[in-house]
Amino acid sequence: MIRARHLTHRYGDREVLRDVSFHVRKGEIFGFIGPNGAGKTTTIRIMSTLMEPSSGRVEIDGIDVEVDPEAVRRRIGYMADHPGVYERVTVGEYLDFFAAAYRVPVNDRAGTVAAVVELTDLGSLRDRLVAELSKGMKQRIQLARTLLHDPKVLILDEPASDLDPRARIEMRDLLMELRRMGKTIFLSSHILAELADMCTSVGILEKGRLVASGPVDAIARALDTGGDDKPRRRARLRVLGSTLMVTDVLASKGVDVEAIGDAANGNCVIAYDGDDAALAELIRSVVMAGVPLIGAEPERNELERIFLEVTRGEVQ
Fold first, then answer.
1. Do 186 and 32 form a contact (C-beta atoms < 8 A)?
2. pLDDT at res. 219
């Protein structure tokens, strides 16, 4: 559905994208991750037909964004980072205006706006002035605007930026619903835990280069079969009784055990080398030793681990 091939872009003498290639399949939620200045917004602007690359190409639904930008615009819904809104109109008037701008037929316009309002749960706010709404509701209106022409692909640049926790959860749930409806979603965000909950695949950008791309589990497996200088993985265990029982079993296996609070409360974090199979073997050892284990889970979500392993914290 989205394919970037050898994408390069320069601002004067400064190269901000360097041979970036990735593929987003139909129906995916693709998380685009990277530090500020990595080149994420430049990539998104090229995909959205707002800029032309210095070299390389991007195709959306099989259409080159430079060859036929009008056809691409009919297929995408683009939401910029910190988009502006017209505040002296009501929510309904705002959406009706953009439905006209998207050339939704007059006879279909009211029904289209009503359907989008229902999908984005804006019905109770339809007659409210945009100026009166919270940041989260304004972001929701912006997302509603991108849906008016029923695009196949959504390109969203930091849609949850500056939102409070409730608004972030609501935005996440809405994006998951849009995926269930068959939309392909390209999503830039700094909130890794949020992306881990919903992305089917990711691309990680640093200093204009794509350092990893693909399904999260596939990237993780590739890292786990890599070199010996990877940071240790961590898991949280809970036992009945003192965590010293865990220490006694695992100390001889080169595993560090750190109690969370008082060792007597049974909560600890273990730091170990290896993959999920290694963790399973450690847990088996604890259980076979008679330790009353009642819970075990990785401490850091997989996407955070991947990000820390493949990036170096460098900026352009």
1. yes
2. 82
How many angstroms separate the CA atoms of 312 and 310, rounded? 7
Residue recorded with tokens 């964004």? 65
Alpha helices in 215-261 (DSSP H): 216-224, 244-250
> In terms of domains, do 161 and 57 share one?
yes
Bridge partners, residue 214, by sequence: 202
Place of tokens 């195709």: 59
Task: Check if the beta carbon of residue 48 is closer than 8 Å to that of residue 67.
Answer: no
218: left (phi over 0), alpha (psi -120 to 50) or beta: alpha
Name the residue range of residue 290's domain: 227-308
Residue of 144, 138, 184, 191 whose CA lies nearest to 169: 191
From CA 224, how far away is CA 278, in angstroms rounded? 11
Query: Could you report the per-residue pLDDT of 231-274, keeping only the tens digit for each?
Result: 677 889 999 999 999 999 998 898 999 898 888 889 998 988 87
Tokens of 30: 């693709």
Element (H, E) at 293: strand 293-298
Total domains in the chain come to 2
